[in-house]
Amino acid sequence: MVRLVPGVVLCAGIAAAASAVQAAEEHVFDHPYVEALVIAILIGIAVRSSWDPGPAWRAGIAFSAKQLLEVAVVLLGASISLGAILGSGPALLTGIVVTVALALGASYALGRLLGLPARISVLIACGNAICGNSAIAAVAPVIGAKGDEIASSIAFTAILGVLMVLGLPLLIPLLAFTPAQYGVLAGLTVYAVPQVLAATVPVSLVSTQIGTVVKLVRVLLLGPVILILSLLAPRLRQDGAAATARPGFSRLVPWFIIGFLALAAARSLGLVPDIAVKPLTRTASLLTVVSMAALGLGVDVRVVARVGGRVTLAVIASLAVLLAIAVALVLAVV
Questions:
Q1: Rounded CA gap, 27 and 12, in Å?
Q2: pLDDT tens per residue across span 201-232
């Protein structure tokens, strides 16, 4: 435990700085356009570019990047409630599930067609289809993604996430959308919940309410996706190669996935009191930021630069496909 202290403290310091920057954004703009976990990665990369942490720091950095991130995934289960899913209505709920499924498949296929490894293609697909950076951070330990792969996925997804917030309202006059239709579109396409608020609050209260509900249902699909990916993890960890032996149950379903599902079930059954949900979710968010700082400290910018062009193209193409699917759903259902 003593060996972990220097590295964990370093990551926590970077996370604190990133959180302070996000707080400043919220104070100035009311909503954070660049989230703390993205800022933490960028600060970590900047530190690593000028200083390579020695052996005294590495154990704590590795612990923060892996174990703390796994704990954060478990705690995310407290934010899952089946009631939110059932309250959305069958038609819209089906549409959200279909949209996420199609976006996942199309994004993954685009990544592979562009020559990206299987793991980074999965990260981009999950970030694009579900909830951006949070989905990437949650899926990464399940498929054994490397720090460079995670940082690349989050960096380019974050940039497009901000552009979506700024550009999505321009589609209202172009497509003659009502506030309700725009709310569904924002909930289906914008990556993070705070970004949904930023994209809908200036439009109307109806857009904000509908967009938030749709977005939350979309986020809830992260649980089933993580469970499916945990079953496919042996192949993904070998980048598509066939597994040489049948893995045990603990390899198929890692402990933190079991914890995530257990906490989600407890939340849905009312065993987790409402008063505890916010602290648990907040703790998960803080641990994720610390983990992202650790990942940033482990990133070799030269590796990121080598895949930058293909990753950028994959993210842009995936977002275009998601927008097309979402627009079609809105026109057909809403």
A1: 22
A2: 778 878 887 887 788 788 778 888 888 888 77
What single string gives the DSSP state of each residue in 286-308?
Answer: HHHHHHHHHHHHT--HHHHHHHH
Output the furthest CA–CA distance in the chain (Å, rounded): 61
The C-alpha atoms of residue 98 and residue 70 are separated, in whole angstroms, by: 28
User: Which among 216, 257, 242, 209 has a CA at the least distance from the CA of 86?
Assistant: 216
Write out pLDDT tens, residues 276-308: 888 988 888 888 889 878 878 877 666 656 656
Rounded Cα–Cα distance for residues 199 and 131 (Å): 15
Q: Would you call 71 exposed, middle or buried from its count of C-beta atoms within 10 A (0-12, 13-18, 19+)?
A: middle
Q: Do 143 and 229 touch, CB atoms closer than 8 A?
A: yes
pTM above 0.70, yes or no: no
Is the pLDDT confidence value at 155 over 90?
Answer: no
